[in-house]
């Protein structure tokens, strides 16, 4: 025997699966991490009590201004991120939702992630040193460079490491500083040949830079649009693709001569 449901009964029956799906969506963990602006560090000075760049085997310049590398802070891979967290982050300019595998490409194991980030940082430091000495045509000299940045991992400080080495050894090439006395921040990986690569979380890094006093931000050219979308007031973007281009742009900015690239 078949019986016909009343309209309210039919709506209740149809709505039940939808409610269940919505409840599941709200409470189920999602494959995202929530990130926010992290710390910055002046690579020309000290970070947590230790000199970031140390050089032996060559005279080192006294520098003014700052070259600040930037970071983001993300929820750990085992943190439960649900739909409410995602929605809240969409309306908060100080936070961003990022795919978890973009933040933690090495997996979910915390120890493995730490090992991976340390390895990435060491490789970045080696390539930054090679790029800087190559740019200065001093790769055949007996110059030893030490780079130390406690509790920071990954390759995104490569460009700033290279610029710091160049500034300490050669400045702008004519006795001045690359920074022109400014607080210059930035981000970008670097290869041994001086090629600058894209990174993640650029809008959050520009916020960290401006918070810590930067007025200039060096950004990988491929990420100009992303950086412009939420650019803090008072921060000037300079797009770069190579170490040489970054140095040339900073020298042009310092001396007030030549063209300074813009996004």
Integer count of domains: 1
- Total of DSSP H or I helical runs spanning 4+ residues: 8
- Helix and strand pattern: HEEEEEHEHHEHEEEHEHEH
Q: What is the CATH T-level topology?
A: Ribosomal Protein S5, domain 2
CATH class: Alpha Beta
Task: Please report the distance between the alpha carbons of the first and last residues.
Answer: 72 Å
Rg from alpha-carbon coordinates: 23 Å
Looking across the biggest beta sheet, what order are the strands in? 6-1-5-8-11-12
Q: How many DSSP E strands?
A: 12
Shape: globular
Oligomer state equals single chain
Mean pLDDT: 84
Gross CATH architecture: 2-Layer Sandwich
Helix coverage percent: 25-40%
Beta-strand residue percentage: 15-25%
Structural overview:
- The protein contains 8 helices and 12 strands.
- It is α/β, with parallel strands linked by helices and about 260 residues long.
- It has one domain (about 35-75, about 105-255): 2-Layer Sandwich (Ribosomal Protein S5, domain 2).
- A hairpin with a 2-residue loop joins strand 2 (about 45) and strand 3 (about 50).
- The N and C termini lie far apart (about 70 Å).
- The model is unreliable at about 1-5 and about 5-30 (pLDDT under 50).
At a glance:
One of its GO terms (biological process) is proteolysis. The protein has helices spanning 7-27, 83-90, 100-103, 110-135, 158-169, 202-211, 224-229, 243-255, and strands at 32-42, 46-47, 50-51, 53-56, 66-74, 96-99, 144-147, 183-186, 189-190, 196-197, 216-220, 236-240.
